[in-house]
Amino acid sequence: MSPIKLSKWFSFTASRDWFYRYSFTNAGLSSVTTNLGDGTVMHCWVPKVHKHSKPTLLLVHGFGANAMWQYGEHLRHFTTRFNVYVPDLLFFGRSFTSRPERTESFQASCVMKLMEVRGVHRMSLVGISYGGFVGYSMAAQFPEAVERVVLCCAGVCLEEKDMENGLFKVSDLDEAASILLPQKPEKLRQLIGLSFVKKARVMPSWFLSDYINVRLSHVSFSLYVMCKGFVEERRELIQTVLKDRSLSDLPVIKQPTLIIWGEQDQIFPLELGYRLRRHVGKNAQLVIIKNAGHAVNLEKPKEFVKNLKLFLLG
């Protein structure tokens, strides 16, 4: 049977998603959906039993499918030492809202409300890429709740003028959205090329199409797991991140902060990591991981976890 015919009967992406779901459940987490009111619903992986003797760790994902895909390789390293919570941000996975807000500030307030509903009022957090924008906003808005902060390849200190000044590989927001929200195999191939230093030699279009178009049947409503869900809403999230953004408007967080960056990040260049360390000041430390790009958590998982452990547990 040819690979193209096989892909009609078997989805590699759906199988991988099932594996992550199994591993999250096996790690002692439950899939919970919470109605926050005002048309906002958030999905989160939460501990089956919250142990008050352990601290809480919140893992916030970036752009992509859902939280499982970005933290599936790391979860087992933290569930024994922390009460781990892994939410889907709005318009990812099974989280959504009918409200018009698209800012990371609104995302942050929704995550905080979710945690309060779960009875959690103090936590450390890890934010990858866009999740770092949300995590930074949580630390700024709720300093009494957020104890320690890890920001991984999160271009929080970018400014609107950076696009005009040629800091990024793309020339405008429309081009950025077409890559970050790939709807065709060639765009997904381009995104992978920008995210990883070491690329797969062969990425057939039928395989990439499966990743883009797969639906899951085990949820209560039809859901695109990857790139087809909430496309317009996610595009608005990208536009809002950059619109009128200025470093002078960004508050300085006071929590101990670890900044992790892939040395060859082509989505948020390393310059933004240095800029973020300068902005946060004495409370920040910057770790640069060599031979890694934007997807440093996936490309160098051992180094990523090692640095998280040293910071969060040391």
Describe the structure.
GO terms for molecular function: catalytic activity. Residues 55-301 form the AB hydrolase-1 domain. This is AB hydrolase-1 domain-containing protein. It comes from Castanea mollissima (Chinese chestnut). The protein is of the alpha/beta class and 314 residues long. Helices cover 40% and strands 18% of the residues. Strand 8 and strand 9 form a beta hairpin. The longest helix has 15 residues, at 12-26. The protein is globular, with a radius of gyration of 19 Å.
- Tally of strands: 11
Q: Give unreliable regions as ranges.
A: 218-222
Name the overall outline: globular
Largest sheet: 9 strands, mixed
* Percent of residues in helices: 40-55%
Report the end-to-end length measured between terminal Cα atoms. Answer: 53 Å
N-to-C series of helices and strands: HHEEEHEEHEHEHHHHEEHEHEHH
The Cα radius of gyration reads 19 Å
Strand content: 15-25%
How do you describe this structure in short?
The protein has 314 residues and is an alpha/beta fold. It is built from 13 helices and 11 strands.
What descriptive keywords fit this protein?
13 helices; AB_hydrolase_fold; alpha/beta; 314 residues; Meta-cleavage_hydrolase; globular
Topology summary:
Elements (H helix, E strand, L loop, with lengths): L2 H7 L2 H15 L2 E9 L2 E8 L8 E5 L6 H5 L11 E5 L8 E2 L6 H14 L5 E6 L1 H12 L4 E7 L7 H5 L8 H8 L4 H11 L9 H9 L1 E2 L6 E2 L6 H12 L14 E6 L7 H11 L3 E6 L6 H4 L1 H13 L1
Parallel strand pairs: 3-4, 3-6, 6-7, 7-10, 10-11
Antiparallel strand pairs: 1-2, 2-4, 2-5, 8-9
Helix pairs in contact: 4-5, 8-9
Organism: Castanea mollissima
GO molecular function: catalytic activity
Protein name: AB hydrolase-1 domain-containing protein
